[in-house]
Amino acid sequence: MFDYKLLSALAAVVEQAGFERAAQVLGLSQSAISQRIKLLEARIGQPVLVRATPPVPTEIGRRLLNHVQQVRLLERDLQSQVPALDEEGRPERLRIALNADSLATWWASAVGEFCAEQHVLLDLVVEDQTVGLKRMRAGEVAACLCASERPVAGARSVLLGAMRYRALASPAFIARHFPEGVRADLLARTSALVFGPDDFLQHRYLAALGVEGGFEHHLCPSSEGFIRLIEAGLGWGLVPELQVREALARGDLVELLADKPIDVPLYWHHWRNGGQLLGLLTEQLIAAASSKLQVLS
């Protein structure tokens, strides 16, 4: 039989990125958390964590974390059917990985009413849409919103739609760098903005225009900051259409190459045995995405 006190300690260490914060969350001493992890490892006969900063689950550790995520959600279903089991009446905390651009645009309106009705607290982990699935694979989250279609073992994926991105710059930037008009080959010679080291959207955009190779760029891991830097003339960048309609209408930002957007598909991944809560959230997101995201044929 599993000792869920030990598994809760493992989950807290990974989710809180360390032993000290895990101890605070569980109301225990750091030494008690460490002892629980050691006891868990002794019982299964192998390490569950790589003692790094932050601690990283081993392969068996990931399997145990996946199990814990699903058990928590199934317990919630049982508590709703047998209220006497829910002695503390605490809200469910749902840990989800998603991309920053969704968080900055359509996500809040999609889940606001759901969280209020279902008494859910969100613990959001922001990752680039191309790599967010690694959090689910590691057992750190119960669901993930990302650009990867193939689900991890034990999970399902649903295509919600696509976010449309447009290549934009400020009028001053365009006047300075493209006085004779914007050309694809010139884009690679001017400074761009990239969200982070895992963001290859600008690379894909240039490749679609027939331009290969690297280019100079700023790194800005903030959706809002990304737009502010473009408006300030630091570079050009690909921005979600949902986020800049007003700026485009005012003329604060201008599309570099007329009507050449790039669409990024968004898939919702969730555990198959995630219980009723994840099922309801999935239905909510599918309904909300139909009016917010591009439909892919």
TrEMBL record:
Q: What Gene3D superfamilies does its record include?
A: 3.40.190.290, Winged helix-like DNA-binding domain superfamily/Winged helix DNA-binding domain
Which GO molecular function terms does the record list? DNA binding; DNA-binding transcription factor activity
Key word Transcription present in the record? yes
The residues covered by the HTH lysR-type domain are 2-58
Coiled coil ranges (UniProt) are none
Reply yes or no: does the keyword Isomerase apply.
no
Family of this protein: Belongs to the LysR transcriptional regulatory family.
Q: Which NCBIfam families match?
A: argP, PRK03635.1, PRK13348.1
Q: Kindly provide the name given to this protein in its UniProt entry.
A: LysR family transcriptional regulator
To which species is this protein native? Pseudomonas frederiksbergensis
Q: Taxonomy-wise, where does this protein's organism fall, top ranks first?
A: Bacteria, Pseudomonadati, Pseudomonadota, Gammaproteobacteria, Pseudomonadales
